[in-house]
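User: Sequence recovery, please. Input:
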């Protein structure tokens, strides 16, 4: 027997939990599936100092635990489980959890987030939270007056390098090609910043340091006759080689851009399907902040409530 729910929330980052708080307070009896990484990307960061309301900062896992508690307090039904397939061909929409349980949902809030891409080096795991980060806005503050490296040549890498240059004493930008892919204006910002040194045609082989990152081993012009090993001293290593929005499971039905970010109508979390909303990083290539994710989670729950009352469900 399929379970029928009025509001299904998929994903448990700030977007999902905020949607759950608002939806439960609006009597939608939301069911939220946490997914593979309960709490989302923030559980992999240490201190969060830019989420309003925490003047002394809070750790990522604590913040997510607080949001979860707040959602539970109002009756949100939070469960562990992964969406294994979807059939969004007609309403109520069918979502299968862990290949077994089928949920029939009148509304769905997709808040499955995005996953930062990593190079795939064992050292990225070894130094996770000890000098390796994929979010300059989250962790840059810990590198004031220190030296950091950013990997990538796109807009994100240039933006993160410029942001970090406002805090750190020196920023290396490690670029695998001999040019930046970023927009001209972002490139100019990088080239005109005396604190940023761009290392073109460099790739990272590994990281070094006792317990924390203290350096990186690079190779310049790998495979060429003039290939060269390069060591740099750094205190932080930031990945900015792109994010992968976790939207694949909805793709046959939900419109995305070419990267996979879910397309929403301007100024709202509405997707191309009525009653289905997208909140947080899965629909946001630009801001990617906990607070903006929470904001769109709130919007989605309000939209879901309005949709259901208009439909009389
Ligand atoms: P992009 O895909 O644009 O760029 C990724 C960068 O990472 C590329 O330079 C790529 O190198 C490099 N890269 C990928 N894999 C590796 C690897 N294994 N080793 C080394 N380097 C690697 O991602 P972004 O996150 O920068 O941008 C995503 C989208 O968001 C873009 O459309 C961008 O314009 C937009 N954006 C806009 C901003 C703004 O307007 N303010 C700010 C941030 C993002 P290569 O070039 O060699 O492929």
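Assistant: Recovered sequence (313 residues):
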């Amino acid at each position: 027997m399929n379970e029928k729910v009025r509001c299904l929330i998929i994903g448990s980052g700030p977007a999902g939990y905020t949607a759950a708080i608002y939806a439960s307070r609006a009597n939608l009896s939301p069911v939220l599936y946490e997914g593979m990484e309960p709490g989302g990307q923030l559980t992999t960061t240490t201190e969060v100092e830019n989420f309003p309301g925490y003047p002394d900062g809070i750790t990522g896992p604590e913040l997510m635990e607080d949001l979860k508690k707040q959602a539970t307090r109002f009756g949100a039904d939070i469960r562990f489980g992964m969406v294994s397939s979807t059939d969004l061909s007609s309403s109520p929409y069918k979502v299968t959890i862990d290949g077994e349980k089928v949920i029939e949902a009148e509304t769905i809030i997709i808040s499955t987030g995005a996953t930062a891409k990593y190079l795939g080096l064992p050292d990225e795991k070894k130094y996770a939270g000890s000098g390796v980060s994929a979010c300059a806005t989250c962790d840059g503050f810990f590198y004031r007056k220190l030296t950091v490296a950013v990997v990538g040549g796109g807009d994100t890498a240039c933006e993160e390098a410029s942001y970090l240059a406002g805090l750190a004493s020196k920023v290396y930008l490690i670029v695998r090609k001999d040019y930046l892919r970023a927009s001209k204006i972002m490139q100019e910002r990088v080239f005109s910043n005396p604190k940023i040194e761009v290392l073109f045609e460099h790739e990272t082989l590994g990281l070094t340091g006792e317990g924390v990152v203290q350096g990186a081993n690079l190779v310049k012009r790998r495979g060429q006759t003039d290939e060269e090993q390069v060591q740099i001293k750094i205190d932080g290593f930031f990945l900015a080689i792109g994010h992968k929005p976790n939207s694949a499971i909805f793709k046959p039905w939900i419109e995305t851009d070419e990267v996979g970010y879910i397309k929403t109508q301007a100024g709202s979390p509405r997707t191309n399907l009525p009653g289905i909303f997208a909140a947080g990083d899965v629909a946001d290539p630009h801001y990617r902040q906990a607070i903006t994710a929470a904001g769109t989670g709130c919007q989605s729950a309000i939209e879901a409530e309005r949709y259901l009352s208009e439909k009389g469900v």
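The mean pLDDT is 95.
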